[in-house]
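Shift notes (night). Ran Alpha-crystallin b chain while the centrifuge was going.
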Amino acid sequence: MERGGGERGGRERGGGGGNGGVAGGGGGFDCKEFKPEEITVKTIDNKLIVQAKHMEESPGRKVYREFSKQYSLPQKIDPLTLNSTLTSDGVLSIEAPAPAAIEAPRERILPIKRL
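Came back to this:
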């Protein structure tokens, strides 16, 4: 579910519309319309899930914002190594250490057996 009723949810930074999307070039999630305690980042198996919910009420007015995004992590990323950071201007970043470099295949010459 992208967002509930009420006003618009978070917007994507650095490209295109959308709610709380990941921007190209590592821009992160635009979460400035949410308090830190309204944002949840979790992993389930190899999935990253980012959710945010905000509700405010005043006489004659109710505002509800929500977004939920789910991403499959690359196979070589360990979900336990992910870190999330929320900047003072409301940008949520998710980072993972780079996977270990893949060792180049070693050359091996196979002997040819003669029959």
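The first strand starts at residue 29 and ends at 30. The chain has a mean pLDDT of 79.
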